[in-house]
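Morning F.,

Quick status update on the modeling queue. The single chain you submitted on Monday has been processed. Sequence for confirmation:
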Amino acid sequence: MSGPALVGPVLFPLAFKDTPCYILNRFERASRAVPGMNSESRMTMQQERWLSVDEIAAHMGVNPDTVYKWIERRKLPAHKMGRLWKFKASEVDEWVRAGRAAPSSNTGE
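Structure tokens below.
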């Protein structure tokens, strides 16, 4: 049996609308249409990914249970996607810088 051997991944042309390249191109076109959005802010939006509860807890150095409490009690910036909570590290970092993670003196927490 002789013939070409396949070594490595086989690449197929991108022909489907829901491929990452197609989605990225649509995002780039849409973000160019937003007034005031420069290339730097487009880069930031493209590069930042959604983090899970465990990932944001590790990022902040706290227990995941604390993250759930902060969502409920202190309005930690979180987005519910189906049954999961997702976070942008930049939003959470700004929330911490604003001092909203610190216990408030009038609630006794």
